[in-house]
Amino acid sequence: MPIRKFRHGISARPVRVWPQARSLADSSERGLAEEPRGPNQDVLPHVSEEAAATGDITGEGGPELDQGTPVQEILKRDPEGQEKAPRVIQEDISPSKEENTASSRFADGAVDDTEVVTQGVKFGMPELPLPSTSHLKHRYDPVVNQVTKLLMRDGKLSVAQTNMALILSHLRTSSPPAVSPARPLLPGAPPASHLPLNPVLYLTLAIDSVAPLLRIRTQKGAAGGGMALQIPIPLRARQRRRKAVEWILDAADKKKSRGSGKGQFAQRVAEEIVAVVEGKSGVWERRGGVHKLAVSARANLNYASRRR
Q: Do 183 and 165 form a contact (C-beta atoms < 8 A)?
C-alpha cells in the first residue's frame, strides 16, 4: 500500500486506495458483453409496420411502407401550394366537369335531394319552430302539470310530483276499465282496452268527460228588491278541468285506505279516476246536478243582461 505523506513528516499508517469505476467504453474495448435487455425495453414498431406484419401473416396484405402520403392530399389542405404546384397536379386536384356541373345545378336549385351537412354538429340541428314540450317550463303535458299543482300541499312540489307519478303508474298497470253505456266518455275516445297503454290520455279523458260545462253564480239584487238570482256562467277548458279535479280529490279524501304508507293517497286518487271512467263515481252526480240547476236558471240570464 502507498504511504500517506503529511506536511510535518511521513505517516507510517497504511491508506486504502479504492479502484476507479470502469466506464462503458472500457468494457466494450475489453470485449465484455452488455447487460441483457428485458422484453418491455424494446422500442415498439410503427402502426403501419405492425399492420404490414399482420397483413403478411393473415395474407390480406397490409399498407405499403415505401409509399407515403400523396402530394394531392397535402395540397388539398394548402390553397397557396395549389397555385404554385405543377399543372398536372392542379388538374388532378381540381374537380371534374361532372362535379362542376352538379354543383352548378345545385346552386341553381335543380337538385334538391342532396343532403346538406352542418359542420360541427354531431346529431343534427333541431327543426324550427320548436314544439311547446321542448321548453323547460312547459315540458310536461298541460293536464299533468295542472293536476300536479292541484295535488300540491304546503308548497311541496316534489311530493306532488311523486304522487302524480304513482297515479300514472297505477293507471298504466291496472286492468282495462269497463265503460258504462249510461255514462259514456267523450266522443272520439279510444277503446277501453287501449287506455292503460297511454296513462296521460287515460287521465285526460277521465277529467274532460266529467268536467262541468257551466258554473252557477249567485247575484244579489239581479231581479230587484234585493232578491238573489242564480245565473249560469260558461267555463273555459282550464276552469272545467280544475273543477273536475277538485271533485275527484274530494271523493278520494272520503275513501278509506286499503293499507298504510305514503302512496295510499295516490292510490285512492287513481282508483277514483278509474271509477270515473267506469261511471261508478259520485262525481257524475255532482256534474249532473250542476247542469240541471244551470238549465233551470237559464231564464235568469235576461235579468243579468238588463242590469248591465
A: no
Select from 280, 272, 222 the least CA-distant residue to 247: 272
CB 93 within 8 Å of CB 75: yes
Quote the pLDDT of residue 189: 92
The alpha carbon torsion through 220, 222, 227, 231 (nearest 10 deg) reads -70
Question: What whole-number distance in Å separates Cα of residue 133 and Cα of residue 144?
Answer: 12
Cell of 46: 410503427
Q: Quick one: average pLDDT of 161-183? A: 94
Question: Which residues have a Cβ under 8 Å from the Cβ of 143 and sit 6 or more positions away?
Answer: 200, 203, 204, 207, 241
- Residue 219 burial (10 A CB sphere; 0-12, 13-18, 19+): middle
C-alpha span between 306 and 222 (Å, rounded): 9
Measured distance CA(255)–CA(147) in Å, rounded:
19
Q: What is the pLDDT of residue 28?
A: 47
Q: Are 213 and 243 in contact (CB under 8 A)?
A: no
Average pLDDT over residues 283-301: 92
